[in-house]
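Subject: sequence -> structure tokens, single chain

Hey, anyone have a minute? Need the predicted structure for the following. Not urgent.
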Amino acid sequence: MRKRGRKTTEEWPKDGATLRRKRIMDLLTFIASFPHDQKPCSEEALQTFMLLKHGNRRSTVTGYLRDLIAADILLLNRNTAGYKLKRTWEQTMLIFAAIGEN
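Reply:
Had a minute. Here:
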């Protein structure tokens, strides 16, 4: 019997890549659901979200954003300093599905 509030080893990801993928998916979901017509999705908003959801440091989130821009997934609008998906949500998920199969 396990103690309340503690996770068993089966509930934890098996490796760092699985954990990183989940965090990146949460980041992309947040960006996709952000109301871009009201204000841009700033780096500070993303860092705050990831800190509260996963406990990530600001530098880690900045690294994720750089990687997603380099992978041609995210677009940074330099005028508003806001991030958005470069493609539709469906196209982005197709890219992740194709990569996940290899």
